[in-house]
Amino acid sequence: MPRHLFLPDVFWATEDGGDAECAASRDADRWMRLAYSDVPIVTQWDDGEGDGREVPTSSASMPTMVAAMLGDLDVEVGMRVREIGTGTGYNAGLLAHRLGDANVTTVEVDGGVAARARRVHRDAGLRPRVLHADGAGESLPAERSDRLIATCSVLRVPGAWIRQCRPGGVIVTPVSTLFGDGAIARLVVGGDGSASGAFTRSSAFMRLRRQRYRAPSVDDYLPGEWPGDAPRASTSLDPETFRGSWLTFLLGLLVPDLYYRRSPEGGGWTWWLFDTGVTSWATVDSVRGAESLEVRQSGPRRLWDEIEAAHRWWVARGRPGLERFGLTVTADDEHRVWLDDPRRRAQARQR
Ligand SMILES: C[S@@+](CC[C@H](N)C(=O)[O-])C[C@H]1O[C@@H](n2cnc3c(N)ncnc32)[C@H](O)[C@@H]1O
Q1: How far is the CA of 206 from the centre of ligand 1 (A)?
Q2: Do 47 and 110 meet the contact criterion of CB atoms below 8 Å apart?
Q3: Domain 218-313 belongs to what architecture?
């Protein structure tokens, strides 16, 4: 299925570290080269509102990631598949080509994006069912599919997805944390309303619309001057050492409801940690090469201590890789992270 058929005239591809605009009408060669490069291609910013380019909100995912996730999905002829996040329609087009139009339903929350995907499918001779709806809602057709694939990430796997799959069915979804990017989870649906399985690879996907997080202002945490009454402490763990790696995702799973911001400070970085309950904050001053970094913590949660405890837990287990971790979502919506075996829960305790 040619990828360029699904791409709009103007898109933004991650090239040379930036999101460079590319228009087929102005630079057809470059447009075609990017269409067949292994890069994600942004097709919408800020939910299509205004002319800004703050947050990418729709895209064609990176081809190797599309292929890897379809590999995880492991479809066979005759299966019924539901996709959440139609975007350009490319992934649904691949599925419809393989399984037949009648076996593929794709759900897109953005009306304009859904309408465009329908048009593009028709022009490509495909007719999977494209629904304009919130794919995490309960209002979708109740029929159970054999496979469900999400191409937007979730902080929590919606219970509706488990109910929309038959027992033994498979859910492939990017899972993310507020602390760090994410990973693809491949969950097998149980007969008891739960779903469980391993993480297969790191990923960075845009978040399911209803699970986006808007951080409160720093003033809500610290109304006065930093550091307020937060006592001074020190750490030998530099957060810069795990920034941008899958480990931030794992730490975010082990220490939930936590996010960070960082700001440049005297040649290094100050990390600000906040809890989503707006009760606690911490700062860590990262200075390159320093053995001891200054820490300040305030509030009932000692957020940096929690990160350190989770990191210690991981080191004590021999620094296991991402693929040894998995997730179980119980019928009553509890999310349990495990190491090697669903019975071996990953839980870090503070000293
Ligand atoms: C990475 S893009 C999807 C890529 C797409 N599968 C393709 O082949 O081009 C993510 C899409 O998820 C959509 N989305 C976000 N939240 C959603 C929701 N709650 N229900 C359905 N779609 C959603 C976004 O609007 C966006 O178009």
Answers
A1: 8
A2: yes
A3: 2-Layer Sandwich (3.30)
Identity of the amino acid at 46: D
* 251-310 per-position pLDDT tens digit: 999 999 999 999 999 889 999 999 999 999 999 999 999 999 999 999 999 999 999 999
With beta carbons less than 8 A apart as the criterion, state whether 90 and 70 touch: no
Query: Residue 115 in 3-state DSSP?
Result: helix
Residues with CB under 6 A from ligand 1: 57-61, 84-85, 87-88, 90-91, 107-110, 113, 134-136, 151-152, 205-206, 208-210
Cβ(171)–Cβ(187) under 8 Å? Answer: yes
What local confidence, expressed as pLDDT, does residue 113 receive?
Answer: 98
CATH number belonging to the domain at 63-211, selected among 3.30.450.20, 3.30.9.10, 2.40.30.60, 3.40.50.150: 3.40.50.150
How far, in Å, is the centroid of ligand 1 from the Cα of 237? 37
- Name the 3-class secondary structure at 109: coil
**Residue type at 41 in one-letter notation:** I
Q: Do the strands 325-329 and 195-203 form a parallel or antiparallel pair, or are they unpaired? A: antiparallel
Atom index in ligand 1 nearest the CA of residue 137 equals: 19
Ligand 1 centre and the CA of 164: distance in Å?
A: 18
- DSSP annotation of 210: G
Model confidence pLDDT, tens digit, residues 153-198: 999 999 999 999 999 999 999 999 999 989 999 999 999 999 999 9
**98 burial type by CB count under 10 A (0-12 exposed, 13-18 middle, 19+ buried):** middle
